[in-house]
Amino acid sequence: MTANDIDVLVVTALKLERLAVRSHLTDIATETYSGLAADIGTSLTSPGQRIAVIETGPGNVDAGIFATRAEESFRPKCVVMFGVAGGVKDVAIGDVVASRKIYWVEAGKAANQFRSRPEFAPVSPSLLQLARAVSADNSWQARIKSDGGVWPATGRMPEAFVGPIVVGEKVVVDDRAEVAQIIAETFSDAIAVDMEDFGALRGGTTNERSKAIAIRGISDLMAHKADADAGGSQPLAAANGAAFLFDLLDRLANSTTVAGAEATAPPISDQINRFVSVARKLYPAGPQQDALWERAGGDASRLNLEGGGATRWWHAIQLIENGGGGSITIDTLLAQMREDFTNSDDLDGLVNGRS
Fold this sequence. Notes:
Blueprint: E1 8-12, H1 15-22, E2 25-33, E3 36-43, E4 50-55, H2 60-74, E5 78-87, E6 96-104, E7 108-110, E8 114-116, E9 119-121, H3 125-136, E10 160-167, H4 178-186, E11 192-194, H5 197-204, E12 211-221, H6 225-230, H7 233-253, H8 268-282, H9 292-295, H10 309-321, H11 330-340, H12 345-354
Parallel strand pairs: 1-4, 1-5, 5-12, 6-10, 10-11
Antiparallel strand pairs: 2-3, 3-4, 5-11, 6-9, 6-12, 7-8
Helix pairs in contact: 1-7, 2-5, 3-7, 8-10, 8-12, 11-12
Domain Effector-associated: 270-351
GO molecular function: adenosylhomocysteine nucleosidase activity; methylthioadenosine nucleosidase activity
GO biological process, one term: nucleoside metabolic process
């Protein structure tokens, strides 16, 4: 076997996460490439699927460095950041979250008050669709190993969710902490928080060869991390997350999708990044400038006008995604923007990217 025989690269931060993935593999050998010590094995349930597992340690910097190096060495079809995470809202310990989008909480401007300037990591549309299918079908629960299952305080089987994950560089143990307040105010739709997804998925997709997604088992809730960790929540969350992961990977292995079919459609997060970048350049005060929002069919009273222009644009896009703001859509916004800026190459690029 060569390094390029790998189908899936799974990036983990902790030993217990690595072990949870290994429990679903057979014929495991630890091999070294470019300074990486990777566990390489075959899926127990998809014998033709070769999987490499690396452990980076906590934090986005190392996750990004090692994911980039591993992607260059193995050239997998798919990169998954896998591990445990904290729950922000709507989830319980033992539940599993697949990333619908991944926010970077650290980006912003530090003035008298921190002003967030959100960045994203890419999530592949086809993997997102598979994650939704797994989430809708509880058959993944049958894969849970003996160290996973029901967290006693919940009194129910773990559930799976597809939702936004927010990523930073700090362990959040108190919902009164500054970073927790930033999450609540700027990333209010996020349901989980961790410290590696942004780096791993940005690094793992640098060469635009691999599909990417993050899968996380919920091991604690922000306000009660220490108690949950002491009770053994991390191994349980990792086991539950691994069950979901390998259900998704089995479906991926059996998928009839033509390899490379996504190449013509940029990840949704990339499209949003480009839109916000152009919008804040043309309308630096925000979407309310020159009555743009209202002209595009939006309800200006719903806009959040706190912070600077970039933050206002971010809140506006979030409002559209959540179905609020009147009859406005990205397309109606673009139409009004093109009326205002008839010779903008940036706008032409956005429109062509959506066609």
